[in-house]
């Protein structure tokens, strides 16, 4: 083998070694990049899991806090509604009481109402012997009214009736007017006073109407409160 052939052979060996070296280098680079990507993905996955856990924990905490805040707001709103309702009803009842007191000054009109109240209670008792409990100011007028009451009762029920006025018991003055009709030794009793008969009806009607209006306003406002709290909790949890 001459010098030229030796050089050619040596060049081939060098090129082969360079090729092998480049290939090994590429394999090392590829493997390193793969290892890096795997490690990077593992770190990212762990970070995501940690963030998800933290987010869920914050969300759960904020949901509990939101529910507590909503419950507290609802309770406070209910208390305010009840207080406002009671104040309003007391004011209405006071006005009604004053108006009913004025009614006693119109004697003829009041006596017509009193006669109707007595007859109404008599029809509820439906007995042949009754006793009337009145306020002291009405006893004389009602005593004169007894024959008329008996005739009206007989015409409407076909029953004769004995009407007595109880002098031992009288209605308190705050009752304003009206009657309590008793029978069978007070085992039967119908209370038909102006305070009981009318004011309670007004109170019941006012309570129902006020409760309806307040609940309507209250429940219409709750979604707004809840939505604001939920929006707030979402923003806080996201941060």
From TrEMBL:
<keyword id="KW-0812">Transmembrane</keyword>
<dbReference type="GO" id="GO:0046961">
    <property type="term" value="F:proton-transporting ATPase activity, rotational mechanism"/>
</dbReference>
<dbReference type="GO" id="GO:0033178">
    <property type="term" value="C:proton-transporting two-sector ATPase complex, catalytic domain"/>
</dbReference>
<dbReference type="InterPro" id="IPR002842">
    <property type="entry name" value="ATPase_V1_Esu"/>
</dbReference>
<feature type="transmembrane region" description="Helical">
    <location>
        <begin position="210"/>
        <end position="230"/>
    </location>
</feature>
<dbReference type="Pfam" id="PF01991">
    <property type="entry name" value="vATP-synt_E"/>
</dbReference>
<keyword id="KW-0406">Ion transport</keyword>
<protein>
    <recommendedName>
        <fullName>V-type proton ATPase subunit E</fullName>
    </recommendedName>
</protein>
<keyword id="KW-0813">Transport</keyword>
<dbReference type="InterPro" id="IPR038495">
    <property type="entry name" value="ATPase_E_C"/>
</dbReference>
<keyword id="KW-0472">Membrane</keyword>
<keyword id="KW-0175">Coiled coil</keyword>
<feature type="coiled-coil region">
    <location>
        <begin position="7"/>
        <end position="34"/>
    </location>
</feature>
<comment type="similarity">
    <text>Belongs to the V-ATPase E subunit family.</text>
</comment>
<keyword id="KW-1133">Transmembrane helix</keyword>
């Amino acid at each position: 083998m001459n010098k030229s052939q030796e050089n050619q052979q040596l060049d081939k060996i060098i090129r082969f070694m360079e090729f092998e070296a480049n290939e090994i280098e590429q394999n090392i680079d590829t493997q390193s990049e793969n290892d890096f990507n795997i490690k990077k993905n593992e770190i990212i996955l762990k970070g995501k899991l940690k963030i998800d856990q933290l987010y869920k924990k914050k969300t759960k905490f904020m949901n509990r806090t939101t529910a507590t805040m909503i419950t507290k707001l609802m309770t406070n709103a209910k208390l305010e509604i009840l207080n406002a309702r009671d104040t309003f009803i007391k004011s209405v009842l006071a006005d009604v009481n004053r108006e009913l007191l004025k009614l006693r000054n119109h004697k003829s009109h009041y006596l017509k109402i009193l006669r109707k109240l007595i007859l109404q209670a008599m029809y509820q008792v439906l007995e042949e012997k009754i006793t009337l409990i009145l306020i002291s100011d009405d006893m004389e007028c009602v005593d004169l009214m007894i024959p008329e009451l008996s005739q009206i009762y007989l015409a409407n029920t076909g029953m004769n009736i004995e009407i007595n006025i109880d002098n031992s018991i009288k209605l308190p003055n705050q009752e304003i007017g009206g009657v309590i009709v008793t029978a069978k030794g007070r085992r039967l009793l119908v209370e038909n006073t102006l305070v009981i008969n009318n004011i309670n009806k007004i109170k019941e009607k006012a309570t129902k109407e006020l409760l309806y209006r307040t609940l309507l306003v209250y429940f219409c406002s709750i979604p707004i409160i809840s939505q604001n709290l939920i929006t707030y909790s979402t923003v806080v949890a996201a941060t």
